[in-house]
Amino acid sequence: MTPNAASPSSGPSGPSRRSFLASTAVATAAVAGGMPLLAACGDSGGGEREGTTSGKAADKLLPAFVASTVANPDLPSKNGSAAGYTGKVDLAALKASVPEKLGTGAPFKIMSPFWGSPPKAGCAYYKALDAAAGTKITWQNQDGNTYGEKLGAVLASSSIPDMVVVPGWELVGKIANAVTAKFMDLGPYLAGDKVKKYPNLAAIPSDAWRMGIFGGALRGIPMPSATAGFITPFYRKDIFDKKGYSVPKSPDEFLSWAKEATSAKAKVWACADMSWTAWNIFGVRGSGTVGWNIGDDGKLTYRVEQPEYLEALEWVRKLFDAGVVHPDDKARTGDQGQRFTAGQVLVYNDNIASWYGKTAEQAASNPDFEIEGMDIFGADGGDPKLWAAQPAGIWSMIRKGASKATIENALAAADFAAAPYGTKERMLVDYGVEGTHYTVKNGVPVKNDLGNSEVLNAWVMLAAPAAYYAHPDFPETARKQVEWQQRMGAFMKKTSTFGMNIVEPTRYANLSSQFEQLELDYVRGNRKLSDVQAAISTWKSSGGDKLRDWYKELIDKNGSGH
Asked: Could you give the CA distance from residue 226 to residue 514 in angstroms, rounded to a whole number?
């Protein structure tokens, strides 16, 4: 029973925001800040679609929060971390989070991104979930890597599935505006005490629900995420111990260690592209709407205007120039995660879900393998300055015009999917049917071949409980994940746009699009620092300064997310 149904694929070397965020969704880890999380404000009929809804206006739209008491975590959430469960699975002790079946069996269709090969319609897993939830779902699973194209086409058509999963990284351009126009206001079913009909949805934190406000109405059922959801710099602890390496505690120490650890002759390089970690070391905010913040000096700036932005890039450039980054990472080919497990790379950054994914993957074939998360240090070797991730970034939505029966069954499915750890519903969602999809040995559920082919990322995309980690086969990994987030979360601050779903005016939609490729090119030595500085100047003159004025007005009107 783990929220991380699969380890995310690292994808091509050199972090790409789009591919990285898509890969992490396989693990049902919600988006860890970085891409625009867009919404709109205005009337529920689709009037004004720029801006945000926050503060008291947003509070009136939210479901009441009723914490779940079904199973208390061993490690409660702290400093924005996920919660942690470190016990074994006792099937006899599992409780029901939904006392009675909420679905009525009315058929409806769901479109959702899917990574891998979807199971066939009518498979044992889908049948079991429908029977337990009282639903009758036709899944329209689409390739997650090209989901934006499909989503855009569907929303532009007159035929929209009853329920659609909408990832935040796809909410750009026309798709962002279509959300308000095409999906219904769920307030009449979920606002205030109405949500109590759906106890698992009621237990979703209010901050996550606030991110589900689109076009002045509650339209998105959120998948909550830990706000201390930072990209983790992983290192090979087994090799560090064997070689006697000390874990670096400053950028200079890291570079010095990297030079010592790298041996091209032995085919060992210190690290992969460390750009994701560099942003955190130097205190650079994420891209998109989360990149804006009012500083102590009262000035509103975007991430590329931070002095630390160039400092982070220059440090990563030093790593590449020193030859301590694996050549395939420089070329952006292959899988850096595989190079890490092969011992060709000793440090790489990835979603924290890989702590469990790599541990489980290597347990049998490489028992000496040990992965640890390096604590993020500050630019001066002191405490880091970290920025909180948004509390949700993937939503399921119900189309406007859906029948009451469809709405109620869709909400019943989402409520089932949001069941907390320690419940019969969670066990069924994550593992399927005992004896059919898995067996339990010494309190550890183990999927068989059918489980591995059918129990994949479908139901988990509809909704989720508050973020947690639970790995009955490797309970210490869950503990380490939570404790790492708690340590890092102690240094976390919120930007002025935290917790706000914001849609920028369409005229600024592509304003910052040049920076990702420019960053990749600069750290690899293919562009000059002056090129980056020129791009920042161009960004300001071609709309950045006007966008700043727009954000200032928005924050003045709605209040800061600090």
From this structure: 29
End-to-end CA distance of the chain: 34
Residues with Cβ within 8 Å of 205's Cβ and at least 6 positions away in sequence, in order, are 65, 224, 391, 466
Which of the following CATH numbers is that of domain 229-386+503-556: 3.20.20.70, 3.40.190.10, 3.40.50.300, 3.30.980.10?
Answer: 3.40.190.10
User: What single-letter DSSP state applies at residue 500?
Assistant: -
As a whole number of angstroms, the distance between CA 287 and CA 227 comes to 16
Strand order, beta sheet including 163-167: 136-143, 107-114, 163-167, 392-398, 221-224
Residues 414-443: pLDDT tens digits?
Answer: 999 999 999 999 999 999 999 999 999 989
The pLDDT of residue 287 is 86
**What are the tens digits of pLDDT across the range 68-115?**
988 889 999 999 999 999 998 899 999 999 888 999 999 999 999 999
The H or E element spanning position 303 is none
Reduce the DSSP state of residue 49 to 3 states and report it: coil
Q: What is the largest CA-CA distance in the chain?
A: 67
- CA 91 to chain CA centroid, Å, is 29
Residue 27 tokens read as 């693990």
Q: Is the pTM of this model over 0.85?
A: yes
Residue 194, helix vs strand vs coil: helix
